């Protein structure tokens, strides 16, 4: 269509700002016209084109919306992650044309909904400025019914932020931080992408949220508070809904309907009306309700809720989405003090060891991943045994669809408000008003959800203040101590409020009180036993390690580098996080533990055997994480949980992510997956006290299994084996001294040192035995009294081999066997993702591993398996099923 231009008009009234459609309510008859096609963008110098009249003189390229300027350039091949470019240094124009029609008088509203504009933006509709915004986190709804034409143009100018940051701002900060430019505290925008060291770019600039024309008819829901609760076996769903009637008579009656696994229920609601505004309220009681659980502890049961409004001639249906009934507390008793006793989540009266990661955007460049990618990333967290994800204050709020998925998948959410480290100017009236509106909109999205477990005022502000020698209370103030918790109470959000992470105790960074960011093991390079000695109550962040990605990710990142120079390449170093202003980075931290656990000199190994260095580095961070979570998960531990920093890399490289920037799991992910599994076995070295075996059963049913203990010499020869039947009650854990299974002293930890160790490998397996004698391994743990394997033997000596068979689903089943111990086995099959990796195989044992194709078109063409203690890699043998293309039936794949 031909584009029509015009200058900004001042003769017409500013469009009416409406209640933003952020409620969970969806009214039948409303239509959504998503403006997601035909977008293009152009960059100019700051102020180079200040009005839409001059847009035709600019050079344009295609853009994806929702999205960002960086995302558009990446898609066009004009920029890639890791390249230096300051996206805040330019003005960016986005524009599109669309067909629509003016609203039909008072009977209909045509509302322009903008769900996220980063950051200082001016919105023009048909040449007329209809909105100015200076917050990335605010959602806008504009009545544009009278301004629409058959053909329309929407143009948005995103003003360069860099010049604004150079201006002098008041009030002056009472403290400073190296996290990012201090003047960012005056702008409501994402810090990720603007933090030198660990998130230097790209900055988020552009229409990162959905843009929609919503045609509202009949009535408009302005407020909907849906609040489920659980009281013993009884579920209650309370509702308050406020709506404005656009056409027709006022509703005379209303019903609240609930439908789900607990049955179908309906209850009449009270209705009151004043002019064209209607208030509806009431409650449904379910005498026996199926509760919602995090997936690790039960079924995340959901029920569909809706309201039926009945008028004299018509009825309206308002869908409220799905709700879950659960009870949440900070500890075992009402007297539990979160800021002293720490966070010890209890769901439905059951202690829930909370574990997971700090969430990072699935697409950190465009901030607009498709729904399938988001589901896949969340399912990846579920598969890893995680039950809590934290959305940090350095990032941005997630969509309602994200939270819907967390409800569905049984993932708890720790939601930070988007504040971190800075002294924010809350005394300024405009800033305070903007923050209050932002918080109300966020609470509208997350309130009433079973997944919403924690609301946190900010990230690290109290710690920042205290570490500068000031009193931590200076960092709480009116914003985090009064305004935000008051709004949460007003909205009746059933979530725990944490003022700041970390907080509590005499200093907010002490790990034995309140909520901590624990980096004793990690950045501070403490020995592994510090994880117990520190008496961590809850780690809101922990274990930030430079996790090395697999070969394919490295090849993509530094394709132009010789294979033995990867870690010296500038692009590699750009992907390694560091604290701003420090003379070390997190690769140095990983190297410290590499020397500690494997008794090697990392710098010398890197020089003489680069590939071996990378192989060991992939494994060491996983070993460290598994050890730490084993300490914290013990029944005797005071720790209520921990969140790894973080889930996914922002840029290519050896970042903090458990998965790389493409979403591919790293070795550390698989180590954690075993350590965090709902049913798991692990060991702890109690020195002279012996080797302790721990079994966790988070599931809602009693675990009847057997413990098998096997001792090996030279990591091959079986010396002794013992088996004991065990019963572990639901939602509990148990512990045994390993020597109690043997019935004798064996110095399994080699603590007494009466000569060389009698065994160099101790295997503990948790198994079930079917009626036909088939043994299924639930979990396995290995302990090395004399240290982990350091050297690689010939693969023929280890006896590592693998064979493949086709699965009916299009995947592949690997059968991996080893004669001796095969330590940290890696599966490498191009085009396929292994469901299990970086695992170890007991001497004479085997492991079944499922492989899933990355795309439906992927075909199997062979691969290899490799162990850290065996060289070279062994080729995977193709069985007849693969060669012929036929399938084999698989009834059980052990993980």
Task: Describe the protein's architecture and organization.
The protein is built from 18 helices and 45 strands. Among the domains are: 26-214, Jelly Rolls, CATH 2.60.120.260; 218-323, Immunoglobulin-like; 679-783, Immunoglobulins (Immunoglobulin-like, Sandwich), CATH 2.60.40.10; 793-884, Sandwich (Immunoglobulin-like). It has 895 residues and is of the alpha+beta class. Mean pLDDT is 92; it is low at 1-12 and 882-895.
User: Structural class from helices and strands?
Assistant: alpha+beta
Q: Examine the secondary-structure arrangement and name the CATH architecture of the domain at 26-214.
A: Sandwich
Number of helices: 18
Principal-axes shape call: globular
CATH third-tier fold name of the domain at 26-214? Jelly Rolls
N-to-C CA distance: 56 Å
What kind of sheet is the major sheet? 9 strands, mixed
CATH C-level class of the domain at 26-214 is Mainly Beta
CATH superfamily of the domain at 26-214: Galactose-binding domain-like
Helix content: 10-25%
